[in-house]
What we know:
Layout: E1 10-12, E2 30-32, H1 35-42, H2 61-74, H3 80-93, H4 118-126, H5 132-138, H6 142-150, H7 153-167, H8 170-178, H9 181-192, H10 198-210
Antiparallel strand pairs: 1-2
Helix pairs in contact: 1-2, 1-10, 2-7, 3-7, 3-8, 3-10, 4-6, 4-7, 8-9
Amino acid sequence: xxxxxxxxxxxxxxMIPLSSAAxxxxxxxxxxxxxxxxxxxxxxxxxxxxxxxxxxxCKTAAQAAPFINAxxxxxxxxxxxxxxxxxxxxLLESGDFKYNTNHFPGxxxxxxxxxxxxxxxxxxxxxxxxxxxxxxxxGTDVKAVLAxxxxxGEYDFGSAAWFMKNKCSDKVRKGLKTGTTDAWKAYITxxxxxTVTEERQAGWxxxxxxxxxxxx
Length: 216
């Protein structure tokens, strides 16, 4: 059975050989087909890091795209609606990938590309076997825990997908798969735990369009 639903800039990532006897495979992770261009369409400022306030934190769309693709695969993000919600959240919270540490107001330990709170960062870091020794050294130092995550692009950009997998209810995730704006609002208020604003909604609409979410 061949799965090949290419929608706009994205497609399902695995080609399954034809076979009448084989059972239907599970949905495969979404992959950007024109990842860099799609991100730039959503956030033109992500094309460059020129003039970034904190150059060491900035990543361009071209640098971010492979990490985002990897996070979809690692955490089982298999619908366009979920992917669009994740990317729009990261773009807003990181200032189009210019930041991975909270500077405004400067809350210690808050960061990664979706600006996770320190408690979530610790839980996320504990889920990564490669960080075991680093966490032992970091102890209760929330800045040190954050530094372990932001030092690695895969971990830095993987936090939003990890959060969706581990902290969003099945109801929210099923809603996102429909791609409706109401479902996205539920993701923001019930899962992320913040308020819907015009800026957030505009970012969602751009991402939904790039991901080929129906109705956008």
